[in-house]
Amino acid sequence: FFFQAEDGIRDSSVTGVQTCALPISLMPLAGRPVIAHVIERLQPQVARLGINANGDPARFDAFGLPVIADPDASRPGPLAGVVAGLSWARAGRFALLVSSPCDTPFLPRDLVARLAAACGRSAGAVALGPAAEEPLFAVWRVDILEAVEASLRQGRFAVHALQRELGFARVEIP
User: What is the dihedral of CA 133, 102, 98, 89, to 10 degrees?
Assistant: First the structure.
């Protein structure tokens, strides 16, 4: 169970990409890095937690969690991070992986329970926010790893499109 630590600020409601010198996950919020708030919310909901990040893993040492890099640095992006997480979860003999962005410090305290309950026999479950799907707030069955890897090999990088193709359940989460 893990979340992705991006190397800049990305706002999906704005065309283009905003970046900053400090990764958003390490920017301060109420006296602590944003990622500390995410860990506080997510850790009680899962059996094991890790961080998906590329680059120097030492920047996350203070959090005491494993840092899992993407398997292929030439294909960075959220779906590559999901492959890293699914591989890590499979190695740990987990059936499900929960993904969450690192820049959402106020995620619901029951997010994992709600997504896992909705998953049922589906390949996974994805959160529906007030305006749209939130594809990185998701539960993924570990046994779909090969399908996610195939999507990357075929150059299909859109997380939401793959979730639709695999028949992910959708859960309204305001």
Answer: 140
